[in-house]
Amino acid sequence: MRRLIPLVVLPLLLLAGCTASPDGADDAEGGPSGARWQPRPGTAWQWQLRGRIDTSLDVPVYDIDGFDQSQKTVAALHREGRKVICYLSTGAWEDWRPDAGKFPKSVIGKGNGWEGERWLDIRRLDVLEPLMAARIDMCRDKGFDAVEPDNMDGYKNRTGFPLKARDQLRYNRLIAGLAHERGMAVGLKNDLDQIPELVDDFDFAVNEQCAQYGECAALSPFVKAGKAVFHVEYEVPTRAFCAESRRLKLSSMLKKYELGVWRRAC
Fold it and tell me: Which of 49, 69, 158, 253 has the least CB density, counted as fewest CB within 10 Å?
């Protein structure tokens, strides 16, 4: 989930960034040939969920919207030697998605702060598992290498449902299993408190604003396991977090809230 939830985003005053990259930051490969992709700590990336994808950036990993982007776009990135992550919302309902009508009202809860989005009752695996399996099938069929499942920490929010930590663990492991069954890697999005229990189930992590909230050290289990942590900040200038990111071996950059082409990497 995008950590802060402003419905109207003010322009950011963007300051000059740091330029050095960690050793091995351009190495997106992991494991022997034919194995599931395993991005390593420090791997550079681009996260673009809005607008026409700029495939020209010299980074080894792209994270793009699974519904909005085509097999052709994924193939174009592969021709440039990129690995491609499929962004999906797995913990919240979005009213504009083509499968939105397949979600019964009984599993749709309170809004999560973003227009058109509502939390899902992740306890209802009977309903959600086939819907999420179909979404991950879409990612696989388009040729994606991995999945970024968003809104994976509903139990920490006011969803309209009495979700418990155990519900979240079960659901997150379900999503990870669905991706792995299809030969794709999968990332844990935010959900810092459950990293110790989930680090073995996920192939990398995706985090928003850990520097702003002083939480980046909580992601160290992924780095210690040889797994990348793809990290973004929105409101903290790069000069305030890049040194710490390099020390922790995070793959960090500054983005604007709309998650377009613009980026300023550490």
Answer: 158
> DSSP labels for 141-207?
HTT-SEEEEE---GGGS--SS---HHHHHHHHHHHHHHHHHTT-EEEEES-GGGHHHHTTT-SEEEE
Residue found under tokens 């681009």? 46
Mean pLDDT lowest among 7-11, 104-108, 182-186, 253-257: 7-11
Cα(95)–Cα(117) distance, rounded to whole angstroms? 7
Residues 6+ apart with CB under 8 A from 252: 211, 231, 232, 233, 241, 242, 245, 265, 266
3 pLDDT band (50/70/90 cuts)? very low
Quote the radius of gyration of the chain (alpha carbons, Å): 17
Q: Which residues pair with 252 in a beta bridge?
A: 231
Q: Give the per-residue pLDDT at 246.
A: 97
69-92: average pLDDT? 97
Q: Predicted confidence band at 35 (pLDDT cuts at 50, 70, 90)?
A: confident
Q: Look at residue 203 and tell me whether its pLDDT is greater than 50.
A: yes
* CA of residue 161 relative to chain centroid, distance: 24
34 sits in the region (left: phi over 0; alpha: psi -120 to 50; else beta) called left
CA dihedral 63→107→168→119, nearest 10 degrees, is 50
